[in-house]
Amino acid sequence: MHNISRIRSIVFALVVLAMSAAAFAQIGISISFAPPELPVYEQPLCPAPGYLWTPGYWAYGDDFDDYYWVPGTWVMAPEPGLLWTPAYWGWSNGGYVFNEGYWGPQVGFYGGISYGFGYTGEGYQGGRWQNGQFFYNSSVNNVSVTDIHNVYNTTVVNTTTVRVSYNGGTGGISARPTAQDEVAARATHIPPVAAQTQHAQAAHTNPQQRASVNQGKPAVAATPKPGAFTDKAVVPAKAAGAPYKAPAKSAAAKPAANAPAAHPAEPQRATPAPAETKRAAPEPQHAQPAARPAEPQRATPPPAPAETKRAAPEPQRAEPAARAPAEKKQPEEKKPPEEKPKE
Questions:
Q1: Cα–Cα nearest to 65, from 31, 40, 116
Q2: Of 2, 98, 148, 182, which is least packed with CB atoms within 10 Å of its CB?
Q3: Residue 180 maps to a domain
Q4: Domain encompassing residue 39
Q5: Domain assignment of residue 326, yes or no
Q6: How does pLDDT run across 65-102, given as a tens digit for each residue?
Q7: Whole-model pTM above 0.85?
Q8: What is the C-alpha separation between 235 and 218, in angstroms, rounded?
Q9: What is the torsional sign of CA 313, 315, 317, 320?
Q10: What is d(CA 4, CA 281) in angstroms, rounded to the nearest whole number?
């Protein structure tokens, strides 16, 4: 019975792991403006065998409405045989959506973004696992052959020269997942380890990592280990991927960033709102002139009594008409026949 219970627990854990892998693949955040291009920087020296390179990327802080750079760093693989699929930004439903990176037996789709150091936009040519040991391709990795002996050298041809950091949208990479990428996407994944999460959080809380501050050229572009922002081996960016142009109104992007809450959008909508109320205020003013002309119409009843006064004189005019016949009778009384007796 105890063995059956253990088997059920293991099966349940695997199901939960598979479900969580599908859940963390895409973060529920959408930004209306694209992330900056990838900065130009060198890779720090690999600290020890077993560390795999995880490229730097632009993350987004919805609390300060800006992109910030998470430095590339060397991370100890969670277990032998696992490779890192980098995070990337993709275009979906009118916004830029962040796709979380993950560990798996194969490198999956990461937007066709050319992160360098073996990540050419498809797959990974920076190293391979062999007999439980990771072998580094020294042509794309900065490793010391004195300290690390699992090294080989294979030339990697990278035809991608653009440093665009997102897939789809205006000016984005147009790559699509291959059949092999689809297989990798369905495989069991492991989310970023605790060291990676802490590394990203340290970048989030460092204002110097924000694009609006460093103009796309972060002072800490890569670290030898996760969280080592002050280590003497920290590598600064040599240049921004392209001249950085901050959004005209970064707050306009917040609604997309906080898709569920849409807090950034409220300030913008609130701004036009006062203007609308001001426009609505003049309407009563226009309505007042309309009401004033109506007052003379209400004054039309006063002319009615005037008409009754004019009607009253009409009988007075009729009186002279009655006297006129009386005047005509007077000439009839003065007849010449009265003078005939004198003859």
A1: 31
A2: 2
A3: yes
A4: 25-276
A5: no
A6: 999 999 999 999 999 999 999 999 999 999 999 999 99
A7: no
A8: 10
A9: negative
A10: 75
